[in-house]
Structures are given as C-alpha cells and as structure tokens.
Amino acid sequence: MHRILRMVALAAGLSMASLSAHAAGDTVIGGKMYFDLSHLSQKLNGIPTSKDGTGLDVKRFYFSVTHRFNTIWSVNLTTDFNYVSSDKQTNLFVKKAYLQGDFNKMAILRVGATDMPWIPFAEHAYGYRFVENTIIDRLHFGNSSDWGVHMLGKGGNNLFNYQVSWVNGGGYKHPNRTRGMDLAGRVGFQPVQGLMLGLGAYSGKLGKATQVVPALHTAQRYDALVAYHNSMFRIGGEYFNARNWRNINTVATDRADGYSVYGNVNLRRDMAVFARYDKSNLSKTIDPSLQDTYYNIGISQVLAKGLILALVYKHDNRQSNTSQLKSDEIGVWGQVKF
C-alpha cells in the first residue's frame, strides 16, 4: 500500500511539474510603474490650491498577465493602479481585458478593452511617457484604452501599420452601454528607418448618448504625428484638432486644437537630456481666450534594465480673460518595467 501511495504521489508530482512548466511556457507576467517625488507650486488666480506641496505619487502601476492558448488565440488582463497624494485615494481599474486572435501580421483581432489607436502610438514615438502624458491624454481629449472590437496590424516589412477600433466611447474606466458605438482609426508609415508618420481620426458620442439623455452633437478629433530617432537623438511633433469634445450634451458647439513638439539628445547610451513644449487652444468658439501652455526640461538616467530616473522641471499655465491656473513642479520621475 505504501509503495502504491508513493507511486501515486510521484506521478502526481510529475504531473504538477509538467503542468507548471506548460503554464510557465504559455503565460507571461509583466508590470510597469510610473512614480515621482516632487514639489508642486500651483496657484489659481494667485492663490495656492490644495494640490500645492511636496509628495510622492505613484501615477500608474500596470500589472499584466498574458496567456497563449495556441499560435492564434491568447488572452490578456492588465490592471491599472494609481495613487496621487492630492486626491487622497487609491484607485484600481481594469486597463485591458481582451481576447486576441493572431491570424497574420496584417490581421490581429482584439475583443474587449485594449489600447486605442492613437495615444499609445504617440507615446511610443514620444519616449518619455513616465515623465508626462502625451498632449491628447494630458488635456483629456481622448482615451488610451476602451472596450470594443479592435483590428490592427502591420506590413510591408514594417513600412506601414494601422488600427481600427469600434468602441463604447467612455474609456476603460466607464464600460457603459449606450445608443451607439464610436469609431477610431490610425495609419502609420515608416518610409525610412527611424522616421514615423501618423494620421488618426475619431468620431462618436463618447459614451454619453443614452435612451434617457440623447446626444446633441458628435465629437470628432483629427490627429497628425511626425517623429524621427536614431542612436544620437529623437525629435518629433504631434497636432490635434477636436470638435465638440466637451459639448456632446449641450446646445453650444466648440472647437479645440493644439500641438506638442519634443526632443532628446543622448549624452551617452544610458543618459539623455530632453525637453517638450505644448500649446493648445481649449475653447476656440465659446471662450477663445482659454489657452494652455506647457513645457518640461530634464535629464534622464538608465540605472538598470527596466529602471530609469529623470530629474525634471515642469511648467503649465492655463489661462483665460477671467482666470489663471499656474503650476510649477520640480522633482524626480521614474519608471520601473519588468
């Protein structure tokens, strides 16, 4: 009896070892964290706001699990955690949750919540997302992830890439069902190594059209990007033009546009100096005086694979004829990736 039990235990152990090895081969775990330790001086019409002060923020911590069933089908779950000291609360969201079918490089299907066509594309070209969101994300004229059906791919030896997304429109934090879904798309071209050109568009109700509250307008956004990088430097720019983004349910219509230019110079393989400048008109019809000017400058250092720190100064000035919100921030920003 003891011999039989030992044989059963040995067989079970070998089976578990085989299952563990199989799972390890098919399942990938990863993560990414953005954090900063900084001093923020923020004044509204010359009076300090509640965000004025010094503190540590974990702006984002993504934890992802990807499991591949076979050569075609896989599934991904990515959670999104953030803690901002001025908000005095911790939030946890599902950033991505999708089923993926890899039919070929030109036809990758994703069903669920995943990257939208534009913001992640612009982040990749920018290269310093851990320091600051790209202009559309920073000004809240778009979502980085949303729930829906997505088709993407690339071809021509990486000459071009594309993505088309049919989504709920409220972003990954608000997976609500509405009267219709939004459409977003992007095409990218890489005519020579290191040069990326991109065009994007968005049209929809942003998840705000319901049976109870019908939408009065359709939000639209048009995007363009040019970026180039090599082993010595990176330079790029992004432009957007948005219509009725914040006027879906109001009688009034409005427009906004803006641009962002950025670049960095590599002092050596693990160190670079960088800068960025944004200029935006936030309400060209209702309040043409409302504008936002933002810039940053800093130096970054790669400490280890997956770990980078940057000493940064930021300035943001949002003003109109009736108000001014001015922010100056200095500190250390970092990214951990595994």
Structural summary, described in words:
- It is a single chain.
- By secondary structure, this protein is mainly β.
- It has a single domain (27-337), classed as Porin (Beta Barrel), CATH 2.40.160.10.
- It is built from three helices and 17 strands.
- Strands 1-3-4-5-6-7-8-9-10-11-12-13-14-15-16-17 form a 16-stranded antiparallel β-barrel.
What are the SSEs and their pairings?
Elements: H1 2-26, E1 27-44, E2 47-48, E3 53-68, E4 73-84, E5 89-104, E6 107-115, H2 119-126, H3 135-138, E7 145-155, E8 160-167, E9 182-189, E10 195-204, E11 219-229, E12 233-243, E13 255-268, E14 271-281, E15 291-304, E16 307-319, E17 324-337
Antiparallel strand pairs: 1-2, 1-3, 1-17, 3-4, 4-5, 5-6, 6-7, 7-8, 8-9, 9-10, 10-11, 11-12, 12-13, 13-14, 14-15, 15-16, 16-17
